[in-house]
Amino acid sequence: MKKYQFRSDIAISDSAFYAYGKDYAELIENACLAVTDAMVDVEKIDSTSPRLRRTKIEKIKANSPEKLLFNAMEEVIYLKDAEQLVFHSFKCENLTIKPSDCSATLIMKGEKIDREKHNAHADVKAVTYLDYKIEKIKNGYRASVVLDV
Predict the structure, then answer these.
(1) Which are the contacts of 138, defined by CB distance < 8 A and separation ≥ 6?
(2) Which homologous superfamily does the CATH classification assign to the domain defined by 4-148?
(3) Which residue has better confidence, 2 or 103?
(4) In terms of C-beta density within 10 A (0-12 exposed, 13-18 middle, 19 or more buried), how is residue 38 classed?
(5) Residue 5 to residue 82: CA distance in whole angstroms
(6) How do residues 41-52 score in pLDDT, each as one tens digit?
(7) Nearest CA to 77 among 127, 113, 13?
């Protein structure tokens, strides 16, 4: 199963993609990776150098599974803006989905932004609700996401 696929059929000035996952945790991981790929060249992010390596662990909470995914992607954008961090690896752990009480721990690995190295694609401002939906599909889940750039 592919992790994500950028779309040109939904938004002209924004960035849109489908994210996929065999389960909800993998959907969150792959959607966060797609958000990063919309901002910079993910392949250029290096976490092997101890000088550059950064790991962030964030507890994400929401009142629905849809909002949990939304909040996780927003956290990736926030960390890009507030701490100048971009990530190439995401791990969603301790996922809890209950009515009106959803949470997960998001472990992100990456480095500080280097404008010359990372080849900026777009300055993503936010996740939008335009065409935002999560669907159960044959092999797991698919999220439709549009980013405001």
Answers:
(1) none
(2) Archease domain (3.55.10.10)
(3) 103
(4) buried
(5) 27
(6) 888 887 676 656
(7) 127
Instruction: Please report, for residues 15, 39, 116, the alpha-carbon distance to residue 123 in angstroms, rounded to integers and kept in the order given.
Output: 10, 6, 15
Sign for the CA dihedral angle at 82, 35, 145, 7 comes to: positive
* Tokens representing residue 97 in the block: 């989905």
Nearest-CA neighbor of 32 among 124, 120, 130, 116?
124
Q: Which two tokens stand for residue 85?
A: 């961090």
Instruction: Give burial (CB, 10 Å; 0-12/13-18/19+) of 87.
Output: buried
Q: Report the Cα–Cα distance between both ends of the chain, in Å, rounded.
A: 27
SS3 119: coil
| pTM more than 0.85 | yes
